[in-house]
Design a protein that fits this description.
The chain has 9 helices and 10 strands. By secondary structure, the chain is α/β, with parallel strands linked by helices. The protein has a domain of about 160 residues: P-loop containing nucleotide triphosphate hydrolases (Rossmann fold, 3-Layer(aba) Sandwich), CATH 3.40.50.300. A hairpin with a 2-residue loop joins strand 2 and strand 3. Helix 2 packs parallel to helix 4 and helix 3 crosses helix 4.
């Protein structure tokens, strides 16, 4: 294992299942690999519900995680970020590249490397200031730096120009749904996480708010790794550089394909991916496959 790749979590080794012939093992150079997952198995009680034998993800860029409902896409993000339900257990290893991360970050919880943005905005029923100060206090940032850092995060998410002059007094839960979602992203920026996990972040938003959030994800991908769970294949094509397909194999979900997004949509290698794209887009399978 490269010294720059450090284990977030590693339990008993498991035997890799099949269905991996269409998973491209990109980013074999540790310098460009931001995170790798090996032998990840997630169980609900004794029943296996998700398997990710091996995948390597880039240090920067947007990776769209797609697949049918119930295949385990959101569960994958929860396992990566250590936000597993108490009824679930997992085995395997998640390795993150800490090269270039501040030394102070090396000593704190693995959760600090991840910013999670859920389908429903996670803001607290208090002022915008009180929401934004939470990650800064956890990082032990000096108070005199707070306002400047907060305004920078609000600017990056397009919120600063939409708020009142005394934005710090506004209550976060009175913002629109799209604004609350962008405030959640601003909190992730202030957490200074280098991996962002998005779980259907625009499913409840209008087209204008969706476009704003998609642009933020594209901007984040220029300097961070972004994992996006989405049911919108159009969104995946717009914002991602790489795509991962999770399919149902029998009674559990499993990573079935990983490749550059353009290749995945133009020439899906897995029969299940071809079928899924055809069903979602209505494009004949032969056309999707490029035949």
């Amino acid at each position: 294992m490269s010294p720059s790749l450090e284990s977030v979590r590693s339990n008993a080794a498991v035997e890799y299942p099949r269905n991996q012939e269409h998973v491209q093992l990109l980013f074999d150079d540790p310098g460009c690999c931001g995170m790798s997952i090996r032998g990840l198995e997630i169980y609900a009680k004794k029943k296996r519900i998700l398997s990710v034998p091996e995948i390597r993800l880039p240090k920067t860029g947007v990776v769209a995680v797609m697949g049918p409902s119930g295949s385990g896409k959101s569960t994958l993000l929860k396992a990566i970020s250590q936000l597993m339900d108490e009824n679930l257990r997992y085995e395997g290893a998640v390795l993150i590249n800490k090269q270039g991360v501040d030394d102070d970050r090396q000593e704190v919880s693995a959760c600090s490397h991840f910013a999670m943005v859920w389908q429903k905005p996670t803001v607290f029923p208090c002022s915008i200031w009180d929401n934004l100060k939470i990650p800064l206090r956890k990082r032990k940032v000096e108070r005199k730096e707070w306002r400047g850092m907060m305004e920078e995060a609000l600017e990056k998410t397009g919120l600063l120009g939409e708020l009142d002059g005394e934005w710090w007094r506004q209550r976060a839960n009175r913002l629109s749904g799209g604004q609350q979602q962008r405030l959640s992203i601003a909190m992730g920026l202030l957490k200074d996480s280098h991996i962002f996990l998005f779980d259907e972040p625009t499913s409840a938003l209008d087209p204008i708010s969706t476009e704003k959030v998609e642009q933020i994800m594209c901007d984040l991908g220029e300097s961070r790794l972004v994992l996006l769970v989405t049911h919108s294949l159009g969104q995946a094509r717009r914002v991602s550089q790489y795509g991962a397909m999770i399919h149902n194999f029998g009674e559990y979900g499993e990573l079935g394909e990983f490749s550059p997004t353009e290749d995945l949509f133009a020439r899906p290698a897995s029969p299940k991916s071809r079928e899924f794209i055809m069903r979602e887009t209505g494009v004949p399978q032969a056309v999707v496959a490029g035949n």
